[in-house]
């Protein structure tokens, strides 16, 4: 799957979970940069990503997630 396709799906997941689109997806984006992206919504986002892409994250994968760019990279390796 192309990186752009992943970004589009990811943006939809974030918008649906956080109930707004007041953010721009880029590799440096972190939860701190987005209103409403707290620890609870983070777990919901991760669960939605697993469902949408048909993947499962391992704990070591989640520990690598410093920003959205790292998240996209992990998703690509699992597809």
TrEMBL record:
Name by which UniProt lists this protein: Acyl carrier protein
Pfam families according to UniProt: PP-binding
Highest taxon in the source lineage: Bacteria
Signal peptide coordinates: none
Upper classification of the organism: Bacteria, Pseudomonadati, Bacteroidota, Flavobacteriia, Flavobacteriales
SUPFAM superfamilies: ACP-like
Residues annotated as domain Carrier: 1-79
Gene3D superfamilies in alphabetical order: ACP-like
InterPro entries: ACP-like_sf (IPR036736), PP-bd_ACP (IPR009081)
């Amino acid at each position: 799957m192309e990186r752009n396709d992943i970004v589009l799906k990811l943006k939809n997941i974030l918008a649906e979970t956080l109930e707004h689109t007041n953010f721009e997806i880029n590799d440096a984006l972190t939860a701190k940069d987005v209103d409403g992206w707290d620890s609870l919504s983070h777990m919901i986002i991760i669960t939605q990503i697993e469902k949408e892409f048909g993947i499962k994250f391992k704990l070591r994968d989640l520990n690598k997630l410093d920003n959205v760019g790292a998240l996209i990279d992990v998703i690509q390796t699992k597809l």
